[in-house]
Amino acid sequence: MHGFDYFFGFKSGYIDYYRHTDSDGVPDLYENDKPVKVDGYMTDLITGHARSFLEKNSTRPFFLEVTYNAAHWPFQVPDQATVAVGNGRFLQPIDDSPPTRQDYVKMVERADQGVGQILQTLDRLGLASNTLVIFTNDNGGEWLSSNAPLFHRKDTLWEGGIRVPALVRWPGHIPPGRISNQVGIFMDLTASILAATNTRVPGDAKLEGMNLLPILAGQSPAVERTLFFRIAVAERQQRAVRQGEWKLLVDGDDILLFNLPRDIGERNDVAKEHPDVARRLELLLIDWQKDVDAEASVYLRR
To answer: What is the pTM of this model?
Structure first.
């Protein structure tokens, strides 16, 4: 909730959609810093508070971040009269009573309906043409979703884990129906929003993203990017770099090279055909890691 004037939501990684408790069964629902008890399905509560926020702030500039927990586990569908106690049985396909694909679909549909209601509220208040709306999510889907034709899923650096949908609506600025192949990353959203709002960026600020809006509007051509990724946890060690059409993925001890425009599913490792590209990207990845680790070390010493 840092940096926000108003907050409604939870603080843990996930909560029960109905009881609003964390994985230990502890209540975890807040309005600003105050614990609150509110009845309702979490997705609907988030939609309702987002719409209320728009109503209250329709006459002044605002920034609204709507972070649905749907369709994160526990996989609890809306409109249930009774819900089983405990989050564990909603997690994995090996559980005694695993959730189904239909459960997942119902959860996603309720979030979709919420987004539609928020957009309708903007339209009704006459704010659509003056509001930049960005719809995306933080990672690829889990086992109940389908990331095809991308390979793998959440918690990996394969495309199924890091490539996500991104929809932008800004009537009068972004042409409707336009599709862009520009490669983007989450840090670009900060730079794009600052540009859209004509916000002055301090000279000592080091924005790591770029303003995508001129490209999305068709005013500027797409540009080649060099982007880096890393997962460093005990059970998974992965690093990746994307530059132009190439992606180098280091998965454990394996160094894999893919040409994404030709092989979006990452099924054909071409490192042996292009060792020069693999070596060049590996050196970039090594230098990036040194830079990130050095910056982190300075931060930790403060």
So the answer is: 0.91
Backbone angles phi, psi at 208, to 5 degrees: -95, -5
In which order are the strands placed within the sheet that holds 30-31?
8-9, 30-31, 34-35
pLDDT for 134-184, tens place per residue? Answer: 999 999 999 999 999 999 999 999 999 999 999 999 999 999 999 999 999
40: alpha, beta or left, given left = phi > 0 and alpha = psi -120 to 50? left
Q: Copy the structure tokens of residue 95.
A: 């559980």
What are 42-55's pLDDT values in tens digits? 999 999 999 999 99
With tokens 């099924």, the residue in question is: 267
Structure tokens that stand for 164 in this block: 């996500």
CA distance 134 to 237: 31
192: tokens are 């794009």
Phi/psi for 251 (5° steps) reads -115, 100
